Amino acid sequence: MTFKTSEHPNPQFARKNWQSLNGEWEFGFEKAQSGFKFSSDSKRAEQIRKKGKYTHKINVPFCIESKLSGIGYTDFLNLVWYRRLVNIKRSGKRVMLHFGAADYLTTVLVNGKCAGRHRGGYTSFCFDITELVTDGDNEIFVLCEDNVKAAMVMRGKQSEQKKSHGCDYTRTTGIWQTVYLEYVPENHIKNFKIYPDVQDCSVTILADFAGRADFTCEVLYDGKTVGEAKAAKAFSERFFKIPLSEKHLWEVGKGRLYDLKLRFGKDEVLSYFGLRNVRLDGMKFLINEKSVFQRLVLDQGFYKDGIYTAPDDSALVNDIEISMALGFNGARLHQKVFDPRFLYHADRLGYIVWGEYANWGLDYSSPKSVAVFLAEWKEAVNRDFNHPALVGWCPFNETWDYHGRPQYDELLATVYDFTKSVDFTRPCIDTSGNFHVKTDIYDLHDYSYDPKFFKKNYDKFITKGELYEHVLNDNPGRQKYGGQPVFISEYGGIKWESDKKIKSWGYGVDVRTPEEFCERYCGLTQVLLDNKKMCGFCYTQLYDIEQEQNGLYTYDREKKFDDSIYKKIKAVNTKKAAIE
């Protein structure tokens, strides 16, 4: 990019005047108690601020459970609290306090007064604290309440048992993404959406303004101005269509990004976009009108020392690079809303991803779940809308029945309709694997071991259009294929232990040698590549996570096999697919 957003927590909405609050905070916590209930107002935060003890120092943004926090406490927690003095110089600007993410119910007090509350453990939020601060030192207090066992608290892959088990892992409580201040003029840009148009070689910006001021939007490519829009005394929301004098397509493996400079009065925001479109055509998934077979890998965004939080920016880049090194062109970002900086690196490297939510823990059987889920999901969709690497939405994963009660189908249908109303530019899968209600792509999870059996399962799909669904063997009539494009969004998961000191978990436990692992991987993958009605695959998974040892790399992202094995894996991953 022509401007430097290399350190900004959100490169798609970057102002120069910002201040990181990461680092050492005073910290206290309370162990989980039976009968715990979330607070309905800020009174609990006010009481703890006055009487709570600060027994530790914590390294924000790492959660208390992680080693990088400096604490590493992994038992159940209901309450964690933070305090820090921050020197602020307003200089006539508004002061915005940003949280990348904090789990789960967050209450923020500034100089003893409530700045705001946020519910949800995975999405970014911001409070305008202008009226609560003065020039000089200001106290910021943060209380996070959490309970992964609560019916309406979405936990994702955080273990609801004391220890990790199966495919659930160490919990994350409290702040786990960057905290920062931003200094903003009175008249400023509140938000904007970017709509690239490949056919018309243009981009349309829908900008939302606070106040009234002159507006300009300059588009640059490689430092050269290739388009511009202006408006005098702009206000409220406005569309700006900008013809581009040069056409540089964003493609898989080639993240050609245009830079954006948006000015509204004295406010300047730096951003970027990719010129690309996504659509479905019959059984094909098209990017810029070319059939692209999705060669995806499951990425769950866990780190050995940081849990939900990467130790540094290079770790985010590394996860993409080790995936691409094996011939994958993208990932399912699984049961978690990923850090904006991960998405930025995916954008610039041309690495396609699907946006998902950490839905496990939600009571899918209750009509009340609609309001709970939408409140959090809308924040994820709005935040990540502009990322060119993001090619589809998948709000739910495997919506099994909740304690024996069937899923509330209207939940999935309503969330699908909402997602399409907010973003008509991308396909939406209602729930990955099961149980489909309303979806653009019909995906399946199949952990069959034998490539011959795997092939037999889907031969009828080619000849008769009949899909094999192992889920329905035990749950007949729960979902019905309607002729949509199909991809196997989870398969393989072949267990190969990298740490024999712990009781490991995975699929395909009868694999005895690296050669057998490779043979099974290549056999299963070749079946999907050869099926002319499949538009993609997603292998489980990129790296081991704690006891789940079915990754292609270790939890430390080290190699599990000799280079000869990886060479064969890359060779099959990069073969031309029948649908292409």
How would you describe what is shown here?
- The longest helix is centred in the last third of the chain and has 17 residues.
- α6 runs parallel beside α8.
- The strands form seven sheets. Strands 24-23-22-21-29-28-27 form a seven-stranded parallel sheet, covered by helices on one side. A six-stranded antiparallel sheet has the order 3-2-4-10-7-8, covered by helices on one side. Strands 13, 14, 15, 16 and 17 form a five-stranded antiparallel sheet that branches.
- β7 and β8 form a beta hairpin.
- The radius of gyration is 24 Å and the shape is globular.
- Helices cover 18% and strands 33% of the residues.
- The chain contains nine helices and 29 strands.
- It is α+β, with helices and mostly antiparallel strands and 580 residues long.
Describe this protein with a few key phrases.
single chain, 580 residues, alpha+beta, seven-stranded parallel β-sheet, six-stranded antiparallel β-sheet, disordered N terminus
Write the layout of secondary structure elements.
Blueprint: E1 18-20, E2 23-31, H1 43-51, E3 56-60, E4 77-88, E5 94-99, E6 102-103, E7 105-110, E8 113-119, E9 125-128, E10 136-145, E11 174-175, E12 179-184, E13 188-197, E14 202-221, E15 224-243, E16 257-264, E17 267-274, E18 278-281, E19 284-287, E20 290-291, E21 294-299, H2 313-325, E22 330-333, H3 340-349, E23 352-356, H4 369-384, E24 390-394, E25 396-397, H5 409-422, E26 431-432, E27 442-446, H6 451-463, H7 471-474, E28 486-492, H8 514-530, E29 534-540, H9 563-573
Parallel strand pairs: 21-22, 21-29, 22-23, 23-24, 25-26, 27-28, 28-29
Antiparallel strand pairs: 1-12, 2-3, 2-4, 4-10, 5-9, 5-12, 6-11, 7-8, 7-10, 13-14, 14-15, 14-16, 16-17, 18-19, 19-20
Helix pairs in contact: 2-3, 4-5, 6-8, 8-9
